[in-house]
Amino acid sequence: MADDPARVLIVDDDAAVCWALEQALAGSGYVVSVAADAIAARRAIRRVPPDVVLTDVRMPGESGLDLLAALRLEHPELPVIVMTAHGTMESAIEAVRRGAFDYLPKPLDLDRTLALLKRALGENRLVAAAQPTTPEADTAMIGSTPAMQEVYRRIAAAAGTDVGVLVTGPSGSGKELVARALHRHGAHPEGPFIAVNCGALP
Q1: pLDDT by residue (tens digit) across 144-170?
Q2: Quick check: 135 pLDDT over 50?
Q3: What is the pLDDT of residue 201?
Q4: Residue 157, exposed/middle/buried by CB under 10 A (0-12, 13-18, 19+)?
Q5: Which residue, among 160, 139, 25, has the nearest Cα to 92 in the 3D structure?
Q6: Predicted confidence (pLDDT) per residue in 84-101, tens digit
Q7: pLDDT at 137 over 50
Q8: Which secondary-structure segment (H or E) carries 31?
Q9: Which domains does the chain have, with CATH numbers?
């Protein structure tokens, strides 16, 4: 069993993306199947259960987030990685809060994708299905560079916990923006956000 190649299900309505990803993953030793939408994905999972699912967000019919929510209920042990061309903090947070193992912005970086697949397959996480939240625009926090994607991923991961978070960085780097995003998307968004200028304290 340990020597069996891992099975990956790709769910995306873009045939070119599916083909390219299938070739890359098959070349790395994975057994790959593809589905063009959530309905086909469910059929594929019933037929041959995969070890991990890679799903796009925007698809005909049910979205990737809808599929994710259903899989959290039906197969809570199955890692689901969400892919999206709309690499915003909102989409990252929404995916992680709904129980995604992780989040990948498009265009996909192959090395990062392979590393994430290995981590997903190597970890046996029990992820509780998170309550979906109503998106609220973070107009002051924008950017789609790899560095900003990492910031979004870390905010998404921290927002799903109920622990204190220390945000560090030089003056003007956006620490308060990160803190506000953590509060807004955290466990207690209904509570007040109080910004304190520590430098002004006696």
Answers
A1: 567 777 777 788 777 767 778 888 888
A2: no
A3: 57
A4: middle
A5: 160
A6: 876 566 777 788 888 899
A7: no
A8: strand 31-35
A9: 7-122 (3.40.50.2300)
Note whether 91 and 103 are within 8 A (CB): yes
Long-range contact pairs involving 39-46 (C-beta distance under 8 Å, separation at least 24): 40/11, 41/9, 41/11, 41/67, 42/67, 42/70, 44/9, 45/9, 45/71, 45/75, 45/78
Strands in 7-11's sheet, in edge-to-edge order, are 31-35, 7-11, 52-56, 80-84, 102-105
- Measured in Å, how far apart are the chain's first and last C-alpha atoms? 64
Residue 145: predicted pLDDT: 67
Return the structure tokens found at 40: 């086909």
Cis before 189 (ω within 30): no
DSSP calls for 123-185: -----PPPPP------TT----SHHHHHHHHHHHHHHTS-S------STTS-HHHHHHHHHHH
Amino acid (one-letter) located at 150: E
86: tokens are 């709309």
Within 8 A by CB and 6+ apart from 22, the residues are: 10, 32, 34
Q: Please indicate whether residue 168 or residue 194 has the higher confidence score (pLDDT).
A: 168
Q: pLDDT (tens digit, 9 = 90+) per residue, 180-193?
A: 888 777 767 777 77
